[in-house]
Automatic annotation (TrEMBL), chain A:
The keyword Zinc does not apply. Its main location: cytoplasm. GO terms for molecular function: dynein heavy chain binding; dynein light chain binding. It is found in: Cytoplasm. The keyword Oxidoreductase does not apply. SUPFAM superfamilies: WD40 repeat-like (SSF50978). Residues 1-16 have a biased composition (Basic residues). Interacts with ACTR2; this interaction reduces binding of the Arp2/3 complex to the VCA domain of nucleation promoting factors. Part of the multisubunit axonemal dynein complex formed at least of two heavy chains and a number of intermediate and light chains. Found in a associated with the catalytic heavy chain DNAH2, the intermediate chain DNAI4, and the light chain DYNLT1. Residues 818-857 form a coiled coil. Residues 1-28 are annotated as: Disordered. GO terms for cellular component: inner dynein arm. This is Dynein axonemal intermediate chain 3. Keywords: Coiled coil, Cytoplasm, Repeat, WD repeat.
UniProtKB/TrEMBL annotation, chain B:
Its main location: cytoplasm. The lineage of its organism: Eukaryota, Metazoa, Chordata, Craniata, Vertebrata. Pfam families: Robl_LC7 (PF03259). Residues 33-121 form the Roadblock/LAMTOR2 domain. Residues 1-31 are annotated as: Disordered. GO terms for cellular component: ciliary tip; cytoplasmic dynein complex; microtubule. It comes from Pongo abelii. Acts as one of several non-catalytic accessory components of the cytoplasmic dynein 1 complex that are thought to be involved in linking dynein to cargos and to adapter proteins that regulate dynein function. Cytoplasmic dynein 1 acts as a motor for the intracellular retrograde motility of vesicles and organelles along microtubules. Keywords: Cytoplasm, Cytoskeleton, Dynein, Microtubule, Motor protein, Transport. This is DYNLRB2 isoform 1.
Amino acid sequence: MAPKQKKKSSRGKKSPKPVLAASEDMEPVNMESMGHPEIYPLVLTTKTQEIFSCQIDEDVTDEQPYKLINKEDIFEDLRNRAAVSDFHPVKKIVQEYPGNELLLVYDRDFKYGLNFYLIGTEEGKESYLNPPEVPEEQEEYKEHIPEDVYIYKLPVSKPWVSLGSEKEIEEESVTESTKQITYMISRKRSEFGAPIKFSDQNASSVKDAYIECTAYPDKNFTLKQLEKDVGMQVIPQIKDISTQTKWTYPKNATTQYYPREFSEEEKETLKQSKPLVDFLNNASISVEIALQQNEIMNTFIDDWKYLAEEEGTFGDKTDTHLKEYQSFTDLHSPTEKMITCVSWHPTIYGLIAVSVAVRLSFEDRVHFSGKLLLQPSLILFWSFSDPIHPQLMLESPDDIFCFKFCPSDPNIIAGGCINGQIVMWDITAHADRIENIKAGGGRSKRATLKPMFLLEPESNKEAMYIRHCAVSSIENGHKKVITDIHWLSDTFEINRMGSVFENRSGICCQLVTCSADCTICFWDIRPQKLLTPQTTEKKKEESIEIPFDVPSTFLHLDLSWKPLTKVRLSKGETSLDYCPTKISLNEDHLLCKTQDKMLAQSKTEKAEEMNPYHNLESGMANLLKPIDDFCTKFFVGTEEGEVIYTDWKMEKDPETGRLMSKKPVSHHTVHDGTVHTIQRSPFYNDIILTVGGWNVAIWKEGVMTGPLLQSCCAPKRYTSGHWSLTRPGVFYIGREDGYIDIWDLLEKTHEPAQSQNICITMITYIKPWIFSSKQQFIAIADYYGTLHILEIPWTLSRPSTNEMASVNHYFEREVKHLEYVEQRKKIREQEKKEMELEMAKKKVKIYQKSKEQMQAELKMDYESYLELEKTVLINLGLIKVTEKGSYMDVM
Amino acid sequence: MNEWTNTGREPDPLPSSLAGPTAPGLGEPQAEVEETLKRIQSHKGVIGTMVVNAEGIPIRTTLDNSTTVQYAGLLHHLTMKAKSTVRDIDPQNDLTFLRIRSKKHEIMVAPDKEYLLIVIQNPCE
């Protein structure tokens, strides 16, 4: 085999050989598709292989898989065998082949499909024979190298064919259009750098030094201005000056100023100046016109708006009835019960707590006392979602007559018992149970009448009895039934003397109760500082075990709770005291600001879940100074129907040195029966409603002369009452025959505006509540133990725009009326006095006059008697009738 | 016939322009001022009256000092602004009266060359 030979490409092209007549004019198939257009696969039969001595495995091996074949030989073969020749398909390529020897390569792997292939170009041959060095080194690449040999041909320069690009270049090129002029200026060297002298020259003097275009008036363009309208305004002279400054030290600069004023003398002199007088005379005319315009009519009133408002007050009365919503009765209690107190849960919607007591009179109670001990006294929690089963039941040692939720923590409830004890409950552990009612309330409509405790489905069959947390001490507390209980506000606290201090603990921690034993007690739920060691001994004695499921919030109070102070309502010298039934404290006393605080606390301290009631600390009353100007007065209603305004601050009796409660500031007997409601209006801080006996009275704090309004006796006794929460002039009164009277002060003040029947028996408690602006309920409790929930209609719940002002006006009028009455009383008294004086004087004068008269009368009588005597004597004939005159002379 | 000669001096002042007979302690112009202001103050609903000079310094007032100073300063600026507004629009026009009606009351300003009269009234509702 010929070794690798570099075929020189300088051979140039050879004239093509005479083309053999080809029967088929076929395009040879090349491997262009594989990226090698110079490779033409061929099949070489063994015959051809013999001819060309490229037999497989003999001449053509793996080491040398190629063979250089002469073109001549191929042509000869073609001639000899024509179409049979194996080179027939590539005949054309062979003819066109520039070189002399073609490269035939044995394709052992049938890489190109057939067993041999022909490389059709010189370059391919070259590149095959001399593959590039890099792949030669790497054996793996050897297979993939295109096995053609590229013969390097020097590029032959062809004549340039213009395609129009030179025109573009011409256009873009920048050439100088004008011929550059060059100047050469020369000067004597010595003149360079010489001092220069400038001088002025008038341009016009030198000829042709300048060219001008003089302006000339062109007649075509003249406009003659005939008229000019100019406005002038005088403005103050303005001067703008600016300078640049350097702000080295940024410093705040402040200016303090005071207004310019005239001194008194200047004012006086000015007053007398003529211009001022003239000015005032002129200005006052227009000012007075303007003032009068305003007085006549208000031009900015929106009449439409005011028209609409007026209609609201006299709206249709069709929808003013309270609609029955739900009613709750405890069906499981053995004895007949009555409801004594009702309270809505302050935060949870649809939850209402009711305290029930046995419906027996005092003698019956005593009679059945043994039986009553076995039955638990309860506070029931009703929810709108379940009218049959109460959600929670709070147990207490005895019947509860009044209770209240703690304003700062609705899980703490304080109640007053019939035996004089205060009972405390802590339902924090069961709070989530009640709260879930809200979520389940909607679903209960779909389900059957089952209470929805979704978390604990087992417990919905049993009712939850919750034992009380603490009770007050029996010896030290009240002796008789507790009639009213209130939580004091969390902003202040009281000490033993009754002085007021700031409450630093942020929660409501003091209670006030009044009882039928004529005392009002203040209680503190925080642990008292132990001064004496007596209590430890007491604790040892008490070995009562507390059931495990009762929270220990008030453990320190249980059975040893003493009141902080006791205020005795005494009537003075007599031993009979006032027997309070209800008390009404000032709004400041009850206002709670912890709502926001508790929300914030619950948000931030959720991780710790600290309940301030579980960590009660004793009060700081000893360390703080008392607040001086705090109003410590409050209203008390008594069993006899009196309304008392008294003070809770204790004063020291000068004689005995003991703490004595003050005497009441004022008291009035207005009602004929027990006062069972004293309530402040939610809109006005000093208007109080008292209901008792057969009438209603409205009072104003500060007006001591009497009630603003006192209704006349109603046909039926009034047994409960409450202000409306949204309308300032409306209040609800319950009667003993089950009717509820709705009073509207703007409509009628002598009788109720409406009357509606609720139940058949006495109404014991009324409590309205607002849930949303559209939904307001009123809970009415009756004597037979049923709690009715009614919905307040729109007209009764929505105040008209001026209602507050009108009611205020009404109260002011009433106050004035009272004052007027007082004044008239005084005037009348004065008049009376005067009249009496006159009468006395008259009597005296009469007496004097009559004395003289009597004398005159006597004289006349005497004369007439004398005449009578004379006539008688004449008639008797004893005296002769002579001339009357002489007779008179004789007389 | 009257003969008009040029005396070369100013005419004698008219008797009415001279200061009238002054009562002891009470100048007549002052009394007039007081009377006018009292009359304005006695109108229904008038809260306060004040007279302010051209620079905004109060001369006479029925309100307390701080309120007066505040009103005077603010209303003086406003009046000047209103005046220049009117004159900018039409230089031959001038501001005669300014009334500001607010929710609670109405402020009336009567401007002049040298003084301002401010009255605050509560229109009856």
